[in-house]
Design brief:
About 35% of the residues lie in helices and about 20% in strands.
């Protein structure tokens, strides 16, 4: 996306930052980011990325909007019930900036399509609620040496990871070697909507940092936080030599 006079004005408060400037904003505008899952995390993340000027956003989700989504999935309203999330999300992002290219995929990411989808983007944001899908995204991002910004939310807590697979770092499966028995904990255990918003904001921040800076202190680490006691912890991940994903990396 080219920066015309309107774009320079729109992003002027970012451009004023000495770590961004016009050159940095051009990098932001020319970056392709894929958001996998347009739910509680994916909605605020997409909104922030669009407002910050990411020029090409990919959205993939096969679900339709339900009433129980509306308390935290902030791209949708009651008028959108029964409609596909990616279609309505694209319409909303178009209201933010018509120049943003939004590519939607109304399907579930799986073993057959993951590689062809992920390889087209520079930064991948995992906003899914399925551990098996997270394993798959982790594996394909590792294979293609992508930057993976992953988040998970439950109750009052969240975790955000930055895996830059251009570097020799642990992967998601190093952190969680065995597949948990339960998926979609938001449905069974609940979620505070603001937790999703905070986690997505951190994801958006990591996307911008990954675009602009060669050094990023969160790479190979995770941020874990609880919104009740406001306890934020940064944890360094350790490689697992027996990891079924990166333990066999050459």
């Amino acid at each position: 996306m080219k920066l015309g006079s309107k774009e320079l004005l729109r992003y002027s408060k970012q451009i004023l930052l000495k770590n961004i400037g016009v050159a940095g904003q051009k990098k932001i505008s020319n970056t392709k980011v894929l958001i996998i899952g347009v739910g509680g995390l994916g909605c605020p993340l997409a909104m922030y990325l669009a407002n910050m000027g990411i020029g090409h956003i990919g959205l993939i989700d096969h679900d339709k909007i339900e009433l129980s989504n509306l308390n935290r999935q902030i791209l949708y309203t009651s008028k959108d019930l029964g409609k596909y999330k990616v279609i309505q999300a694209k319409k909303f992002l178009g209201l933010i900036n018509k120049k943003i290219k939004v590519n939607i995929l109304k399907k579930k990411i799986d073993e057959k399509n993951a590689n062809n989808i992920i390889k087209k983007y520079q930064i991948i944001c995992d906003c899914t609620d399925s551990f098996s899908t997270r394993y798959l995204i982790n594996k394909i991002c590792l294979k293609n040496k992508k930057i993976l910004i992953s988040a998970a939310i439950n109750k009052f807590e969240a975790q955000v990871f930055n895996f830059n697979f251009l570097k020799n770092i642990p992967c998601y499966r190093c952190f969680m070697p065995e597949l948990p028995s339960a998926d979609n904990m938001c449905d069974s255990e609940g979620i505070l909507p603001s937790v999703a918003g905070i986690a997505a904001s951190i994801q958006a921040n990591e996307v911008i940092k990954s675009i602009l800076f060669k050094k990023n202190d969160l790479v190979g680490k995770l941020i874990s936080f609880n919104t009740l006691d406001l306890n934020f912890r940064k944890i360094k991940l350790s490689k697992n030599s027996k990891c079924q994903t990166c333990g066999i990396r050459k």
